[in-house]
Write a structure and sequence with these properties.
single chain, alpha+beta, Ribosomal Protein S8, Chain: A, domain 1, Cyclic Phosphodiesterase, Chain: A, 2 domains, 4-stranded antiparallel β-sheet, 9 helices, elongated, RNA binding, RNA-binding, KH_dom, KH_dom_type_1
């Protein structure tokens, strides 16, 4: 079998209809999926049956037309290698698909003589976009900042004591500690690929203001950051150590706000809901922060992949500091934070925020 042979045939269900997809691998290229669909013998009936409810298809003097936004980062998946995917889509649906130049934000324009053909093409482009969007790294996240000065001070004491008492333990060293200015609770992650999508997410966050203030009773929540826990099953091989955060007095209001936020954003399609409840945890040590020895000489910290992570032995840390108190503070905001960014306070740059009071 040559490298151009089909490696993984599969069936995909779109709006109740079944299509066949092929995955092709070319030498010297990463695996790339071809979502130009191989039609069944009932092709004409299938085209008539495919409907697009997401976008308006308007009638023109020459036929029908649909215009919709797609982030420029996803154009290449609609075009395909050497334009093959777009040509197959145009041939199968008897439409014309106009795409802006790479890197230029704009609108996809699909035209055709039949409304059903335009609808079919739109549906297929939608599937391409959603499929490859899921493969993009997240760009933003909803967060509760934990970088109050009192918590930062408590964290730095914790760091100093751990390095003094436990630095002889396997994998424990300074670079795997969180930046104190970026201590936070992650509520959920988002992949926002252009300014329009960021603005849309900000608008959805503003819609949450009413229920957030209702749950918080219009005032900040007094939180206590006490105790540490690890993510995996073996305390001798830990990748993430986190601080436990609770509302003082045992209220579940913080958890309720986090769960409602995820529910709201998931319903909009901007966030994927992974769990029934958000796991609220403030990371204090993470092996993804570990400096790559290959770049230490340049003064930078290399980002390791998950397969390269070197775990650490947290048994002594848990034994000595399992009930450690980082302090208390009043939380009064939830932010839409930009990944890999820093504002003037040292925290992540906020694209948007909502206060509790």
């Amino acid at each position: 079998m040559s490298v151009m042979d089909v490696l993984r045939p599969a069936l995909i269900n779109i709006n109740g209809r079944i299509y066949r997809r092929n995955t092709v691998k070319e030498e010297h290229y990463e695996e790339e999926e071809d979502f130009s669909f191989i039609e069944t013998p009932e092709r004409e009936e299938l085209l008539d049956d495919e409907t697009c409810d997401s976008y308006n298809i308007e009638q023109t003097e020459k036929g029908y037309r649909c215009v919709f936004d797609v982030p420029s980062a996803l154009y290449k998946y609609i075009i395909g290698k050497k334009g093959e995917t777009r040509r197959r889509l145009e041939f199968d649906t008897k439409t014309s698909i106009s795409i802006p130049k790479q890197g230029v934000e704009g609108q996809i324009v699909i035209t055709g003589s039949q409304k059903s053909a335009v609808s079919s093409a739109v549906t297929r482009v939608e599937l391409l976009v959603e499929s490859f969007r899921k493969k993009q790294p997240f760009t933003h996240f909803l967060s509760f900042p934990l970088n109050d000065p009192k918590i930062q001070e408590g964290f730095l004491r914790f760091k100093d004591e751990v390095l003094l008492q436990c630095s002889q333990d396997y994998g424990v060293e300074e670079s795997i500690f969180q930046n104190p200015a970026k201590l936070h609770l992650t509520i959920g992650t988002l992949t926002l690929l252009n300014d329009m999508e960021v603005q849309k997410a900000c608008a959805y966050l503003q819609e949450c203001g009413s229920f957030i203030r209702d749950i918080a009773e219009g005032k900040p929540l007094l939180l206590e950051v006490t105790g540490i826990e690890y993510m995996n099953d073996d305390p001798a091989m830990v990748d993430v150590l986190y601080a436990k955060v609770n509302v003082k007095g045992g209220s579940d209001r913080l958890q309720t706000i986090a769960d409602r936020l995820v529910e709201h954003f998931a319903s909009s399609g901007l966030m994927v809901r992974e769990w029934d409840r958000v796991k609220l945890h403030g990371t204090v040590m993470n092996t993804l922060f570990r400096k790559d020895s290959a770049v230490k000489g340049t003064g930078g910290a290399g980002r390791l992949t998950t397969t390269e992570r070197e775990a650490f032995d947290a048994r002594n840390i848990l034994k000595k500091y399992g009930a450690y108190s980082f302090g208390q503070f009043e939380l009064n905001t939830v932010q839409l934070s930009q990944r890999y960014s820093t504002d003037c306070t040292g925290y992540y740059t906020a694209a948007g925020s909502i206060s509790f009071s």
